[in-house]
Amino acid sequence: MRVVARAGVREAVSAQGFVGGVREAVAAFGVVPEVITGHEEASLSFRGVTGDLQADAIAGPYLVVDIGGGSTEFVRGTAGVEQTLSVDIGCVRMTERHLRSDPPTYSQIAAATADIDEAIDRAAEVVDFQGISALVGLAGTVTTVTALALRLATYDPEKIHLAQLPPAQIIDACTSLLMMTRAERAALGFMHAGRVDVIGAGALVWRTIVQRLQRDVGITNVVTSEHDILDGIALSIA
Length: 238
Known about the structure:
Layout: E1 4-5, H1 7-11, H2 15-26, E2 34-35, H3 38-55, E3 62-67, E4 72-77, E5 81-87, H4 91-97, H5 106-126, E6 134-138, H6 140-149, H7 157-160, E7 164-165, H8 167-179, H9 182-186, H10 199-216, E8 222-225, H11 229-237
Parallel strand pairs: 1-2, 3-6, 6-8
Antiparallel strand pairs: 3-4, 4-5, 7-8
């Protein structure tokens, strides 16, 4: 067993108390919970996703983007991680910081987009976007966007995993989720109940990233992976 905590715990004022509680809960298994760095978080995500990409003949270099609740990780690599940066534009963070209305207002969206653009700029200073062969998105925001883009009636991981779609199709799905009310999102057959409140912000993050890569790098398709940091954590102890 391996227990790791991500951005939410890294930044929490009460992190030590929380980790102490987890330590007590898992003590019987002889496990010590770890608060991992942004770099290790990105590395685990990359490891979890790239095996299937190579098996499916999707060539690198890859730019893997993992949109979480508190942060988004950008990771470039082929056989392994070459460059990585974690930035604070997760779906929960953007919802709480900007998108408070139902649906969000245009001024809220503009403020959030400016925040996201600034974070992408910071990522691009560390992670080279040029020359990538595949933009790969993972985690719940991206898979939910893909479910809508594929017009699925219910969530089907086999159809979502390794789906390759044109940027315009992803951007349209992101925009639809962003502009829906919470009730409209909740009515979607593939929507996880816990994602209803924050998927709009996550979709805005993903839309902005895809648009940037389309503009600056000329990507022609976007790959979605069902495998993510959980697979990377499992592989790290296999």
